[in-house]
Structures are given as structure tokens and as C-alpha cells.
Design brief:
two-stranded antiparallel sheet, 209 residues, 33% helix, eight-stranded mixed sheet, binds 1-O-pyrophosphono-5-O-phosphono-alpha-D-ribofuranose, binds uracil, 6 helices
Length: 209
Amino acid sequence: MESVRLISHPLVQHKLSLLRDKSTQVIYFRQLLREISMLMAYEVTKDLPVTVRRIETPLQNMEAPFIAGRKLCLVSILRAGNGFLDGFLEVIPAARVGFVGVERDHDTHKPRQYYLKVPPQIEDRQVIVLDPMLATGGSAIAALDLLKQKNVSKLKFLSLVSAPEGIAALQNAHPDVTIYTAAIDEKLNENAYIVPGLGDAGDRIYGTQ
Ligand code: PRP
Ligand code: URA
């Protein structure tokens, strides 16, 4: 699985275990997800290209490294992707943000698109697509299809918990996109939920179950 990067940092794994626990309440769930996002943001941006610019320190001039190119763009898959946004923006405050509204049909588990808004010049930016859950892969594939229709080519996909089925489907549909995830769980159940998973991420973030 060359295009999959498993984020196994103990802090991420510890916080993910707390998130999975069904007794973890909304307020604590949000806080943990925000903390995890900051740690995952660090991992997913490790290979951003840098360039040097001449600056003056109080002591002398130097060639100092800065991130190269246009501001990067985060794209949240609504709703649950928004759970990743606060933490990411804490560490990358100048990032641009886009939104893809995709919702799984409860019976067919197929994605239905209902919203799309992305920043200007997105085709020139490194784009990181955010969604805590990669289950069948339908929502991720639909979001990446939409972004590629807008000529985006520098794409990464970040999930917190993934199913092997979703990873395989996403790799098959978008082999050029690296997937970052903190866990590859056992399987999908008959309702296409990830097991053991953490339940419905959107419901747990927003208290809608
Ligand atoms: C969840 C999750 C993903 C999707 C994953 O969203 O946040 O977007 O399911 O499932 P898939 O890989 O099988 O497509 P959901 O459709 O429940 O919408 P919500 O975030 O608005 O609750
Ligand atoms: N969406 C979720 O939020 N959780 C799952 O396990 C599957 C899809």
C-alpha cells in the first residue's frame, strides 16, 4: 500500500482510542478531534516544498526557508470534515478552505452531492481533502472527482479511520492521491459502517444521533 501513510504517532493513537469510546461525550469528542487534527496536520505537511528568501535577523542577513508556492487549500467534506478544520487552521492559519457537500444515502450507501465551494486558483494549490471516515470510499471518490474537474492535481486525502474496502476503492479510482490515515480498521458491517470504527462521525461531532 505505497500510497497509504499510516500515522501511528502514540499521541494520535491515544486520542483516537478515547474518541472511539462510546462514552466520550460531544464536548470531549470535539476537543480530541481538534487536538488530533493539529498532530495530523504536522504529518501530512511534512513534505511541502520550501524555498529560501533573504531576511535580516537582528544580527545578520540569512537565507531563510519558507513554504513555496501558493497558500495551500483544505477541502472539508461536509459535515464531518469540518471536525478537522479548526485544528488544521490553528497550525496553518493562512490556508484557503473549500467545502464539498456529500451525503451518503442511508439505504444505498451511495454519495449524493449537494454543495461545492472552492477558493480561486485552486488548480495551482496543494489541496488536502479532509474527512474523518473512509468507509466504502464513495464520498471521497466523489469529492476528488469534483476537484479534478476543476483541474486540481496536487491532492492528498486525510482520514482518521479507514476501512480496507474504502482504501482499495479510493486507490483504484484515484491512484495518484496519497491517503493519510490514523487507523485501518477490520471491515465494513452490513450497513457500511466501519468496525470497530467510532460510529457516525458527523453525529458524534454535532450531537445529532
Ligand atoms: C460520513 C463520513 C464520510 C462518509 C464516509 O458522512 O463523514 O463523508 O460518511 O462513507 P463512505 O466512504 O461510505 O462514502 P455522511 O454521509 O454520514 O454525512 P455527514 O458527515 O453529513 O454525517
Ligand atoms: N460514516 C461514518 O461516519 N462512520 C462510518 O463508520 C461510516 C461512514
